[in-house]
Design goal:
Oligomer: single chain
Structural class: alpha/beta
Shape: globular
Radius of gyration: 22 Å
Bound molecules: 5'-O-[hydroxy(phenylacetyl)phosphoryl]adenosine
Largest sheet: 12 strands, mixed
Distance between the termini: 57 Å
Order of helices and strands: HHHEEHEHEHEHEHEEEEEEEEEEHEEHEE
Number of strands: 20
Strand content: 15-25%
Mean pLDDT: 93
Length: 439
């Protein structure tokens, strides 16, 4: 029996379905999904073009014959043109966090909302949540799927929810302390900010009641996990999802924490080369593509996430049989190219966290003052590390320079900035500002 840091409790026996039974279930559900998608004009045409109908689905492998869906398809069908049910059957609408223009909406039937809560309950339970816990939710409540998605999952487990939502961090610290929350739910960058504000209030890690954290909604690194765990004195778990596919609950970590189990009885996952759209070898990084299997209101076929990650099909000691996805190492579209080199913000973060004295708050600014790209990385240094000793500051600066070069292969201009000077966000942290004019 594997050695886990706490009891490996399984919420739903379907999480451990033997592969053959799982694939059989996927096949039946895929057929049903294609039938449902046929009620959406966009998919009816796309399926006809691809020459596929529900009756021709023989195995889950047939997913490869289905047409792809991209975010622009949802935009083109704004606001709710992709519905597969009459409007009267809609129980909830959410939206994806678009930074520009109109959001894209996603909809749920009553049963979809129920299914979703069950999926969230699964990963929360696998990451230590128990009915007796108090959970502090610092995700935004609104169109974003984070707040309500986690909220309903926590209720399903039977734990107590504190729907704190984002913002007013000193008050968040007070609520966590006074209400005795054992579990924190938010983005990883906001968890660090909560830790920082707690420290400013003179609290050391052990002084908050927190024991577990469930973080997601944005990419983060293993180094950042260590940092969060140290600063808050907790075990931190990763969970992944996106509104178009359902929201949080697509995949989550188990006590073994060697990747996130994709909830394959509800979603088919493929890992494809983003250029050729052919499958990559297991263990290689590719773009994740999801097909929903149980959603009623908005069935989604082969949704191209742009998220880059690898799949691991080896058995997991926890007994869950869903394939595991590794951390998202970047998006095929937030990757930036500097002087011909592809760079992911997560690489810069990894480099920074290797250097003692830096805080995991940073901003990458890209410009092209002449004909060459320039990258400035603004890095906060930890309170107490700011020194009047010129020599010490130069040494720190050089160390960061070297690490960034070693990880990314390019030179960036490093600017050390005062603790607290980079803007904090209660939601997803903004890491890159690209001021270059399109070529
Ligand atoms: O962020 C859903 C969510 C909320 C997941 C709360 C987990 C927790 P969207 O706003 O549609 O939905 O953004 C989805 O966020 O394509 C990824 O690029 C990124 N993302 C989400 N979770 C993770 C994660 C929600 N654990 C987009 N690691 C996705 C890395 C993540 N990236």
């Amino acid at each position: 029996m594997a050695d886990f840091p706490f009891e490996n409790r399984i919420w739903d026996p379907d999480e451990t379905l033997p592969r053959a039974a799982l694939q059989q279930l996927q096949r039946t559900r895929l057929e049903e999904t294609v039938r449902r998608a046929g009620r959406v004009p966009f998919y009816r045409e796309a399926l006809a073009r691809a020459g596929v109908d529900a009756g021709s689905i023989r195995s889950v492998e047939d997913v490869r014959r289905l047409p792809f869906t991209v975010k622009d398809d949802l935009r083109a069908n704004y606001p709710l043109g992709m519905l597969a049910v009459p409007r009267a059957e809609i129980a909830r609408v959410h939206g994806s966090s678009g930074t520009t223009g109109k959001p894209t909406f996603v909809a749920y039937t009553r049963r979809d909302v129920e299914t979703w809560a069950g999926l969230v309950a699964r990963f929360l339970t696998s990451g230590g949540l128990r009915p007796e816990h108090v959970v502090h939710v610092a995700f935004g409540y609104g169109l974003f799927t984070g707040g309500f998605g986690l909220h309903y999952g926590i209720e399903r487990v039977g734990a107590a929810v504190v729907p704190a939502a984002g913002g007013n961090t000193p008050r968040q610290v007070m609520l966590i302390r006074d209400l005795g929350a054992e579990v924190l739910v938010c983005t990883p960058s906001y968890a660090l900010h909560i830790a920082e504000v707690a420290r400013e209030q003179g609290l050391s890690p052990g002084e908050l009641p927190l024991r577990f954290g469930h973080f997601g909604g944005e990419p983060w690194t293993e180094e950042m996990r260590v940092e969060i765990e140290l600063q808050l004195g907790i075990l931190a778990f990763n969970n992944y999802g996106l509104s178009e596919v359902i929201g949080p609950g697509v995949a989550g970590e188990c006590p073994a924490r060697g990747g996130m189990h994709v909830q394959e009885d509800h979603f088919v996952v493929e890992c494809l080369d983003p250029v050729t759209l052919e499958p990559v070898a297991d263990g290689d990084v590719g773009e994740l593509v999801f097909t929903s299997l149980t959603k009623e209101a908005l069935p989604i076929l082969r949704y191209r996430t742009r998220d880059l990650a690898a799949l691991d099909r080896s058995p997991c000691p926890c007994g869950r049989t869903g394939v595991r996805m590794g951390r998202v190492v970047g998006r095929s579209d937030d990757m930036f190219i500097v002087r011909g080199v592809n760079v992911f913000p997560s690489q810069v973060e990894e480099a920074l966290l290797r250097v003692e004295g830096t805080a995991p708050h940073y901003l990458i600014e890209i410009s092209r003052p002449g004909s060459l790209d320039e990258v400035v990385v603004k890095v906060e240094i930890r309170p107490g590390e700011f020194s009047d000793e010129m020599r010490q500051m130069i040494a720190l600066h050089e160390r960061i320079d070297r690490e960034i070069h070693a990880v990314t292969g390019i030179r960036m201009r490093v600017e050390l900035v005062a603790p607290g000077s980079i803007e904090r966000s209660a939601g997803k942290a903004k890491r890159v500002v690209d001021n270059r004019k399109p070529a």
